[in-house]
Structure formats: C-alpha cells, structure tokens
Amino acid sequence: MSFVILFFCGLVSYILSNKHFLLMLVSLEVMVLSVYMTMFFYFVQFSSESLLSMIYLSMSVCEGALGLALLVILIRTHGMDMVMVFDSLW
To answer: Nearest CA to 45 among 7, 55, 58, 53?
Structure first.
C-alpha cells in the first residue's frame, strides 16, 4: 500500500516539476523504485522466481544512466537544465 502512495507521489512530483530536467529524472527514479519494490515483495510473498525483478532493476539502472548522460550533454551545450531549452534543440 505504501508503495502505491510512493508511486503517486513520484507521479505528482513529475507533473509539477516541469522546469528542471534533474527533478524530472529523480521523480522518474522514485516511480521506478516503487514499482521494483512492489514486484520484489510480490515475488517474495508468493515464492516465485525473482529473475524478472532483477531484469527490471538492470533496465531501470540503464534508464537512469541514460538520463544522467542526457543531463550532462544538455548542461555542457546550453549551460542549464531548464526544460524550456528543449525548444532550441530541434
């Protein structure tokens, strides 16, 4: 139950933090971790195989690394992490 609340807090934070790219990435990571913890406790409760949760965790780590790489590229080229800068990228 608390992971659902954590997921929706991350979702609300993602919707409301539309100015900075870093805050959006942190909100996405909160949502990903709440889904992971829900899957982990589900697999522990029903004594099923947890390989799927490990695959999900590795994909979420790759997603986080890709987001941070995009943040670094954005800051190096434009000097800030404001989402309003995305208009000039195209």
So the answer is: 53
